[in-house]
Structures are given as structure tokens and as C-alpha cells.
Amino acid sequence: MAADEADPFVRFGTWYQAAQTCGLKEPTAVALATADAAGQPSLRMVLLKGWDERGFVFYTNRESRKGRELTQNPKAALCFYWMPLGRSVRVVGSVEGVTEAEAEEYFASRPRNSQIGAWASQQSRPLESRHALEKRVAQFALKHAIGTVPRPAYWTGFRVVPGTIEFWEERPFRLHDRLVYVRDGAIWRTERLYP
To answer: Radius of gyration of the chain from Cα atoms?
Structure first.
């Protein structure tokens, strides 16, 4: 293994850059798996909004199903699948909230209509009609018509802090390449898995 591949984040960076340039509509799309306090799993797509050696970040409404599950059971798994490249990355680990400063900075960078949408959507709760949502959007657009749209207190980010990161690459005859990085204190151990 090359010296620069001893660090899973270096490898992820190389693969992520390739995904961003291979023509995918949304290379940041990632499946996020959570489980509630009883262990019932749930899976949905989110968008990766940042990553570094601390982990992988996405943003959401803390009162949504995923937000509640992550609060009750702060563990998660992510799965990127970049089909044109024949590559997938799986991340499993604990979850922590981003700092208030990080949440503020990212919220401020969002388009104004997305900021209004964060106020209008009671994410994961029953919605009586599309009209009801559009009415709430109009109400919050009017409320925040002038000046900066503040970040709702319930809107924040979560960071998946990996304990393992698996890189899967398609090979002929289903003899795929699987390399797993396992955190061992401050270092990463690697092991290959049968396909």
C-alpha cells in the first residue's frame, strides 16, 4: 500500500474528487442509516456538506426522525455509491453534533429560500397537504422578508466519526476489491476482505 493510502481520509479525498468530476448529478449524495433507541433501523439519503479527519458532516432538523434517532442512539452508518466509477465507501461510527459556529456558518451559506424552507418544514411530521407547506413557506418568507434569516435553534449538523471506513471497488467476475480501515486509538489498521 502506498504511503499516502495509509490514511483513509487521503484515499477518500482521491475517490471523492473523482466522483465530483465523473458526471454524477449529485456526488455528495450518501445513504445515512440510523436506529432508534429500540434498535429499529431507518435509512435515507442526505448530502455530505463537509469532511475532514474528524469525520463526515451533514445538516438536518434536530426534531426530524433522523435527528431524534441520532440523539437517542448516537451511532450511524454512511454508504456512498458512485456507480460510474464502480466504487463505494462505507463509514460506520459514532455521531456528534457540530459546533454552533459550524452550524451558523453553514446555514448562512445556504440560499435564502433554503433558509426559509428550514423554518417552514416541520420535518418528518405528517403534512395535511402541499398547500399547507406552501402557506408556511409564504408565512416565514414574510416574517423574514428583511435582513438576515436566522438559523432555527433546531437546525444543526451532525458529524459521523468513523470507527471503520471500507473502500469497495468493482472488479470483473465479482472479485471485487475491499479494503477496510479500522481505527485503533490514534492509528488506522487495514485489512482486506473477501468480496
So the answer is: 19
CA distance 170 to 88: 9
Catalytic residue among 90, 110, 112, 174: 174
Residue 12 CA to residue 30 CA, distance in Å, equals 13
Q: 79 is written with which cell numbers?
A: 454508504
Q: Which set of grid coordinates corresponds to residue 17?
A: 474528487
Measure the CA–CA gap between 122 and 12, rounded to whole angstroms: 34
- Which superfamily is assigned to 3-107+152-193 in CATH? Electron Transport, Fmn-binding Protein; Chain A (2.30.110.10)
Residues in the chain, total? 195
User: Quick one: pLDDT at residue 6?
Assistant: 83
Q: Which three cell numbers stand for residue 7?
A: 490514511
Round to whole Å and give the CA distance between 61 and 107: 12
Cβ-contact 10, 4 below 8 angstroms: yes
Angle between helices 130-143 and 112-120 (to 10 degrees): 120
State the number of CA atoms in the 13 A half-sphere of 82 facing the CB.
Answer: 23
For residue range 76-112, list pLDDT tens digits in order. Answer: 999 999 999 999 999 999 999 999 999 999 999 999 9
pTM of the model: 0.93
- For residue 174, indicate whether it is catalytic: yes
